[in-house]
Amino acid sequence: MPAVLASQTITWYHYSKEKGRYKILYRPDKYIETSEHGLVIIAVTEADAGRYDCWMGASLLCSYNVTVDAHRCSPPSKSNDYQKIYSDWCHEFEKYKSAMKTWERKQAQCVSRQNNSNQNSHPNEIYRPLYN
């Protein structure tokens, strides 16, 4: 988590057909929070389908639609299957981290440009240097 965002509160919500919108409460048998404030859902069932929103403070950070097909989606039975799924998940997570670092770099550039500009606080004001 970038330092600038570390103080922000991260909250996950699930929108399901049965329950409507509710806040995710972390518990080791169902919902685990990652070190980067991601969400891992354990023992997924069709009831876990729906939209998941991640809020940072009062701003929507990301949203995911999750579809669960219990007939086609069974838990892996071999350790190789688990390793492949874990590898795929890690690859997706690395893409997310890379996108976050790109955003953070661009955000820093914007802040730097604002701090280095000679513009006054109002765009219609005229900058006049003082001469002795």
UniProtKB/TrEMBL annotation:
<protein>
    <recommendedName>
        <fullName>Ig-like domain-containing protein</fullName>
    </recommendedName>
</protein>
<feature type="region of interest" description="Disordered">
    <location>
        <begin position="111"/>
        <end position="132"/>
    </location>
</feature>
<dbReference type="InterPro" id="IPR036179">
    <property type="entry name" value="Ig-like_dom_sf"/>
</dbReference>
<dbReference type="InterPro" id="IPR013783">
    <property type="entry name" value="Ig-like_fold"/>
</dbReference>
<feature type="compositionally biased region" description="Polar residues">
    <location>
        <begin position="111"/>
        <end position="123"/>
    </location>
</feature>
